[in-house]
C-alpha cells in the first residue's frame, strides 16, 4: 500500500551550487548529505512540509544520473512514494502489469529500501518505492 509522497528527486549537474540555490529557494538548510555507492550518486535532502526534496548528482560516467543529465538535462528525475511493505507492493505492481527496474529492493539513500518502476509503464514518470529500514 502506498502511504505517502516521500520525495521528489531532482537531477543536478553541480550539487554544491544546487544545494545553495535550494537552500535559498526553500528557506531551509538540507538535513542530510549522503553518498550512495550502489547508484554512484551524491544526494542532498531537504524537508518541505511532510515530504522531501532530494538533489542527485552522478559521481561517475556510468551513473544513471550522469546519463540522465546528458540526455535530458537538469530537472525532475523521479517521484518517490513511501510504501508499507516494499516486497508486497512490488508483487502487486508486477501483477498489475507494471515493469520494475529491480528484481529485489536495494539499499538507497536516507535509510531506505528502494525499487523503481520503469517510466514506460508509468506514463513517462520514473516512480520510486521507498520503505524505511527499521533500526534494531
UniProtKB/TrEMBL annotation:
Against InterPro entries, the record matches this protein to:
Glyas_Bleomycin-R_OHBP_Dase (IPR029068), MeMalonyl-CoA_epimerase (IPR017515), MMCE/EMCE_epimerase (IPR051785), VOC_core (IPR037523)
Keywords, comma-separated and alphabetical: Metal-binding
Asked whether the UniProt record includes Metal-binding among its keywords, one would answer yes
Q: Name one Pfam family in it.
A: Glyoxalase_4
Q: Does the keyword Metal-binding apply?
A: yes
**VOC domain ranges (all copies):** 4-132
User: What family name appears in the similarity comment?
Assistant: Belongs to the methylmalonyl-CoA epimerase family.
Protein name per its UniProtKB record: Methylmalonyl-CoA epimerase
Which species does the entry assign this protein to?
A: Hymenobacter cavernae
